[in-house]
Amino acid sequence: MDQVPGSAGDHAAAGGPPGCYRHPDRATGISCTRCERPICPECMVSASVGFQCPDCVRDGGGTGPAPESMRPRTVAGGVVSADPRLVTKVLLGINIAVWVAVMVVGDRLVRDLDLFGRALTPSGVEGVAEGQWYRLLTSAFLHEQPMHIAFNMLALWWLGGPLEAALGRSRYLALYLLSGLGGSALAYLLADPNQPSLGASGAVYGLFGAMAVLLRRMRQDMRPVFVLLAINLAFTFFPGSQISWQAHVGGLVVGAAVAFGMVHAPRGHRVAVQRATCAAALLVVVVVVVLRTLQLTG
């Protein structure tokens, strides 16, 4: 990175990037992922996502727990945790546990948990339109084929860890669940109500969208994510693939929108904006589901 003479104020006044907080004469476009102060290459300390400044690294390395208000924060304002993959591990465990249960119980469990709008089953008319709204969420943790769960869990591990570290546990969990619900809602709205669907792909595509937003926010190379996303979308829309493109697109859009609200929320109103973003995403899901239910039952 080029070094530009002048103070931080000079850079800002000229409309250029700010100066490093420790070396004001060095313009930089990189910020610490914890405190968001500008840092130059000499001050950058590599982290799981982005870079941290020396002060945050030193403050985060103490032997005792710091007060909540003094603990280092992620780029989205979440508290930096000792295990940045804990929620990802729990989500992996739930998906795998449900898959094992399907292997043991068989098709009956799949019929009880998968997503479909409204259809005649051996137990009568069932589906989301008949009040079984839980299928919007349970189907996002349901898999049958080994390759299906393998690909989804690999993507969850690859994308989930960095996103959890960047957002914090509660924000990351909200992102994952809302992405899964967004994918289910669009599938419920547009797919054949008799056609069942299942899988964590909607939530995983939401993580793809969130990762693209995060990398852009951190000014990092977005090409690897875009290439992998393009490959997956190509498989999604490949003729005869029998993949629920509605769930993929719904999850992708909701994940990107929620992540944008989280990482671009102004610091002075960060929590309020992030909560409003999540509430708006959930409201859209509810409205879509209600409208589709009225359509199928009216």
UniProtKB/TrEMBL annotation:
It comes from the Bacteria. One of its GO terms (biological process) is proteolysis. The chain crosses the membrane at residues 173-191, 197-215, 222-239, 245-264, 276-294. Its EC number is 3.4.21.105. Pfam families: Rhomboid (PF01694). One of its GO terms (molecular function) is peptidase activity. The keyword Endoplasmic reticulum does not apply. It is a multi-pass membrane protein. It is found in: Membrane. Keywords: Hydrolase, Membrane, Protease, Transmembrane, Transmembrane helix. It is an enzyme of class 3 (hydrolase). Residues 131-263 form the Peptidase S54 rhomboid domain. Belongs to the peptidase S54 family. This is Rhomboid family intramembrane serine protease. It comes from Streptomyces meridianus. The lineage of its organism: Bacteria, Bacillati, Actinomycetota, Actinomycetes, Kitasatosporales.
